[in-house]
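User: What would this chain look like folded?
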Amino acid sequence: MIKGLLLLYLFLFIIWMMLTGLETSELLAGAIVCLVLSLLMPGGARVLSSVKLSPRAIFYLLMYIITFLFELVKSNLDVARRVLNPDLPINPGVVKVRTKLRSKLGRLILANSITLTPGTLTVETRDDYFYIHWIDVTAGDINEATDAIVSRFEKYLEVIFG
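Assistant: Here's the prediction, encoded as structure tokens.
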């Protein structure tokens, strides 16, 4: 619980600094406000307590961010190409994929990562399965769809969140 509280405080304080700047009075006010908010949100602290703080997890977090940004640019270009060239075939549909993630926060980040990359949208989550609307379904079964959509993010999130 203490680890989660500390992570929540740090997360809120980093956001505070990004929004307000680095003046001494702003930092002091932010430190107090973030402490109060952290203490008032025990649920947030419980959720963040599943985050691992090992050097390996921090490295995988950086790798996840790089992978996410790469996939974001790649999928944006793909969707833009389809919009600019209407002759390109699309095969929209909903596919079922499986996740190995056990952490609620890890699953949330995976679902949002899928949704934030253009061309895919997480429609529903049920147990170990996500239902994804995909602009161009190219997979024939659940394993192929999982490899194409989930695996690129999941291998990093599994180390960070378990």
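The chain has two domains: 2-48, 55-161. If you want, I can go into more detail on any region.
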